[in-house]
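Student: Please help interpret what follows.
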Amino acid sequence: MGSVSMAVLCFIPLVFLSSCLSVMAKQTYIVHMKQQDKPFSFSNHHDWYSAQLQALPSATPDSLLYTYTTAYHGFAASLDPDQADMLRRSDAVLDVYEETVYTLHTTRTPGFLGLDTESGLWAGHNAQDLDQASYDVVIGVLDTGVWPESKSFDDTGMPAIPARWRGECESGPDFSPSLCNRKLIGARSFSKGYQMASGGGYLKKPKEAESPRDRDGHGTHTASTAAGSHVGNASLLGYASGTARGMANHARVASYKVCWSIGCFASDILAAIESAISDGVDVLSLSLGGGSAPYHHDSIAIGAFSAMERGIFVSCSAGNSGPRRFSLANEAPWIMTVGAGTLDRDFPAFAQLGNKKQHTGVSLYSGQGMGNKPVGLVYNKGSNSSSNMCLTGSLEPSLVRGKVVVCDRGINARVEKGAVVRDAGGIGMILANTAESGEELVADSHLLPAVAVGRKTGDLIREYVMSDPNPTAVLSFGGTVLDVQPSPVVAAFSSRGPNLVAPQILKPDVIGPGVNILAAWSEAIGPTGLEKDTRKTQFNIMSGTSMSCPHISGLAALLKAAHPEWSPSAIKSALMTTAYNQDNTKSPLRDAAAGAFSDPWAHGAGHVDPHKALSPGLVYDISPNDYVAFLCSLGYTIDKVQIIVKRPNVTCTRKFSNPGQLNYPSFSVVFAKKRVVRYTRELTNVGAAGSVYDLAISAPSMVAVTVKPTKLVFKNAGEKQRYTVTFVSMKSVPQMTRYEFGSISWSNKEHQVRSPVAFTWNQLYHESYKSLSTIWVAASSELSLATKEVP
């Protein structure tokens, strides 16, 4: 089989990737060692690991790629399957598994979140105080690198870099350390896993320059969203014009390039997390993830645990596999799992049909347009059965030349469909949603005049084309519109719960802005990301949980600046318990997939509210030892717990009777063999002394909920109070009932501390577990970042 065929095979669905890799002579394996077993004859672990490798048959000096001591205990190496099996049999080895491949989960948000106003910002302080405190906070972004020349990384007015900072800016063929400054204080790249993959024969592509420079755009976009400086007159080719700024615009940025054109490799990600911990970051932002996998096989979860233990807040994207249930990535409770919602800004565009009906959609097209004269409209025409999807090569030029083409959304990238239409001679495109995307509208900077419409409108247009003997259309564009209602709306692409790894932990945690987000961009690539797009722009508008994740990373940096003594779990609690669940029409949050009301499996605790999060009143705190008890309650062996926790003497002498006993800010109640579930929670007063909180419960009719006590009195700041909640399911729950939702709130005049509750009856999980082993096999071979572009 030729190398081209092999490359094609390696990109087919995840479940086949493992078998594809297995035919290769060598690949990257990650080896977890019993660190305490290092013989005294070795002065350090690196030498020990190297000796372990050199003892293997056919080992070469360059087999060792990385050694890990902080984010992970072990090493990454280039091995063949026989060598990997030999290591597995060693008493000093806890586990050996194949390299995982992650992929990317691909301005108005500060105003939408209320960060441009000072009212109630931070009790006893003003915005200047918070700005000053933010100078000491460093956000580490693991992504595709950074475009350092962007104005979003301008350091004008910033004080000296904190003395504690130990990071650096690396040099590369296209990157000078002098490009860093007091804003962009770190830039590193990690490519040994990528090099192994690109040179190993199974993913043959030209090698990229190994430097921190961003030639994709995604990393620059996420870094500037989290902490970009103020930039006036920012726009994408005239759209969304205004001042662009990050959430924590006075915080520092450190970029860790771990993603390359063929993916983001676990060995590189672990090395970057290890470096970021050593450098001294306060927040880690990872807009990447993948399918569900046990925590001891999830490299991001393992690395994030080490970061959390050292007081580093870790925020990750939930994934772009919605609206399907059980589609989440990054489900570990020590990670902030972020879904995506819309803004109150839109980019209207219009399709005027020959039947005199005008339909409204969205677009970021910025060219000359197609004029006012209607032209022919075609859909699903010709001999190719995939012409309705506008896949490459599916359109017949003789049928679409000079016409507007209707393309169904899905499979290939939205902007790619426009390129396919243009290459076939079409002069315009209507991108019509199907049931999968519902009414969600995502704007794109297409290469030709194009309008994206929802499913209902798409059905009307498709029906018109199929029924009219001479269908026509003309497209026009309406610029930027603000104060759109309703907003926010949960994005249809945003991945959904419930949590497959630990059903007793409700995920995602929150949603943040993730649709049509304007942020800085790499000038090495056009706004569509297509090779044929020669346009250059300093800013771009993108959508995905990749975009919502850095919003929360930036907000966490603000909370860290305001409350440096808070733990990562306290910061998470503040963001979750103060989140809101109503849109700007005072209606419950809606889901773009079907237009119906959303639920906590889509929006978690709700949409973040930074003003309230800065002063939450109470927080649910969790210690690293609590997470150990949680892991033990999942039934993991000590070896598996040790892989995550990395403590040589860890035990399960303390474990919860139910994983849901973890002091989490939300509840997931699974009625399996028992009708009664009882949890105890502990709240810490971070508000005023003498605070009193009253209870409010919302629950479905088939569940009785009792809480003791019903009033919490905190005499002192920092005081802790416990409460116990008992959930009792009725004896005969209707057969059709598989899940319901409610909430538990503690409130006074100043604060509302709200926790969502998901109720699940075990038949839902029985259905999902049938395919769970397949999901985990796939996840062990490839995990993905929240894709750069949602199809």
Notes: Residues 1-24, 769-789 have pLDDT under 50 and may be disordered. The longest strand covers residues 676-685. Residues 699 and 742 are 4 Å apart (CA to CA). The radius of gyration is 26 Å.
